């Protein structure tokens, strides 16, 4: 089969295209999926470059994404703080059709159109123990991939494969952030990185919950972010960012903050939260090392939360939202599988809105 194979940590040259890679055989509890499309997300870049290593102190820069991070330690280069086994096929956001089933999977699943839940639970008694598709196990940057049948969720939608491939990681992560924060109707939520994959999904999910969304994005992307449900959008380059956020909220207190950016943005988000406000992070593309005035935390009784592993059953709820068209895809561009390097380059430049997807077609 055709596959983009990651052979080690470093620059984009570590992605090697093969047209003769072995097609996987499904285990007894697995299905084999003919991949239609596979979405990209920052985890792909973080894993390839070893950005997750604690020795890396900078954000996900274009230079770092192109050449890797020299300070990185391969021993803690994955999101779990462990090493990655190579070769590895990346790609967590998989949509396709079931073409073969393992011995314990009902044959009725054949030809089902499926969306894959990328959080592969490895210990049913402990849902926090899991592997991530494209990190600890092979993902969808290839023609065929095998996953546990329980993680291949049937979907009935007239959206294209490319549109559906924008959802798994971004919607999953955004939903986990909203769940951690317990976003309620009528609350005001500020969302950083609102034009990116997770940020744009978070805008939609908080809007669906009845919250008022104050989004942060570059000025050229404001109209699209508003169309997703944001009540107001603040320019991320605003010199007095905290004041601008509060002005956009009509100087009303901010109940919760969703942050996928980190870096110098972090203290501004804490500053605008009301007493007892909540903050949740699931990314640090602007930098993992942040300054913090502890008085902002304890004097305002704030709660700081992280969001990575999603609760069991999350993806099934999201499939229902997709089928009901309560959320919509934000597809920036598609690339053929052969051009995965170029697709990752576009992702690193951060000039797009929404998600980038690779397809198994030579031209889209």
Automatic annotation (TrEMBL):
Q: Which InterPro entries match?
A: ADH-like_C, ADH-like_N, ER, GroES-like_sf, NAD(P)-bd_dom_sf, Zinc-ADH_QOR/CCCR
Q: Which domain of life is it from?
A: Eukaryota
Per UniProt, residues of the Enoyl reductase (ER) domain are 10-358
Matching SMART domains? PKS_ER
Q: Which GO terms describe its molecular function?
A: oxidoreductase activity
Keywords, ordered alphabetically: NADP
PANTHER family reported in the protein's UniProt record? QUINONE OXIDOREDUCTASE
- What is the protein's given name? Enoyl reductase (ER) domain-containing protein
């Amino acid at each position: 089969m055709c596959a983009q194979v990651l052979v080690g940590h470093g620059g984009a040259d570590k992605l090697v295209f093969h047209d003769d890679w072995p097609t996987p055989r499904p285990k007894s509890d697995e299905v084999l999926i003919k991949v239609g499309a596979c979405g990209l997300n920052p985890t792909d870049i973080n894993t390839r470059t070893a950005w997750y290593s604690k020795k890396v102190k900078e954000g996900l820069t274009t230079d770092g994404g192109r050449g890797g991070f020299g300070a990185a330690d391969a021993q803690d280069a994955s999101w779990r703080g462990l090493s990655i086994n190579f070769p590895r096929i990346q790609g967590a956001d998989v949509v396709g059709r079931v073409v073969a089933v393992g011995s314990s999977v009902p044959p009725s699943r054949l030809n089902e159109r499926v969306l894959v839940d990328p959080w592969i639970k490895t210990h049913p008694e402990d849902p926090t123990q899991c592997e991530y598709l494209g990190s600890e196990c092979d993902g969808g940057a290839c023609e065929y991939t095998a996953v546990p049948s329980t993680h291949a969720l049937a979907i009935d939608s007239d959206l294209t494969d490319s549109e559906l491939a924008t959802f798994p990681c971004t919607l999953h992560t955004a939903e986990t952030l909203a769940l951690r924060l317990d976003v309620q109707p009528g609350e005001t939520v500020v969302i950083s990185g609102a034009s990116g994959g997770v940020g744009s999904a978070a805008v939609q999910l908080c809007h669906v919950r009845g919250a008022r969304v104050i989004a942060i994005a570059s000025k050229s992307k404001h109209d699209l972010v508003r169309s997703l449900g944001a009540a107001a959008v603040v320019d991320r380059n605003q010199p007095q960012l905290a004041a601008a956020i509060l002005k956009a909220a009509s100087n009303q207190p901010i109940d919760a903050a969703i942050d996928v950016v980190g870096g110098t943005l972090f203290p501004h988000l804490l500053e605008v939260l009301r007493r007892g406000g909540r903050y949740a992070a699931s990314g640090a593309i602007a930098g993992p090392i942040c300054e913090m005035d502890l008085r902002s935390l304890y004097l305002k009784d704030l709660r700081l939360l992280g969001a990575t592993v999603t609760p069991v059953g999350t993806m099934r709820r999201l499939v229902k939202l997709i089928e009901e068209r309560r959320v919509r895809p934000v597809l920036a561009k598609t690339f053929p599988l052969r051009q995965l390097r170029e697709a990752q380059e576009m992702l690193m430049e951060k000039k797009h809105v929404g998600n980038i997807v690779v397809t198994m077609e030579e031209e889209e």
